[in-house]
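Hey, sorry to bother you again with one of my protein questions. There's a protein on my desk that I can't quite get my head around. No rush at all, and the record is pasted right below.
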Amino acid sequence: MDENTPSRVNNSTSDGRHPVHRSGVPKHHLKHGKNKFKLVFMSIGAVLLFAGLSLGVLLAYKSNTNSSIDNNRYQAVFLSNGQVYFGKLHTYNGDYMKLTNIYYLQTKSSSTSSTNPQKTSSQDESNVQLIKLGSEIHGPDDEMIVSKEQILFFENLKKDSQVSASIDKYSKPN
């Protein structure tokens, strides 16, 4: 063999056997085991780090949603099917929101101004009425559990808005 030819390191003892650790396991097996242990340990660490980051993002999202809801006011909840409900919005669980004290708008007639279909007269404005959920033929309870996926957005209503004033008026005993 010349000087430029790489030689193989001989890890065996003079009698041809591989060096053995005092545990009886060949030393080259122990090195391989340590590397495997490091790899497993690093993999577990990466999984735990990913899970922790995911949980942190989820909690931040939930806290932002909860902190945006003003419990002292009513909310308008806009659903993906085009319906809008008014009431008190609360977090139900991770995937659902709960709406209570529910109202929705209903039009008595669909008349519009003939010159401008987008402009309604003051008489037409009175044709919109606020309906309390529960008076329908199927008699639903006054609570609704809605998937967060179906909620496009919600708004806190001003206390002096027409909807808030109408709900307060309806809620007060005659």
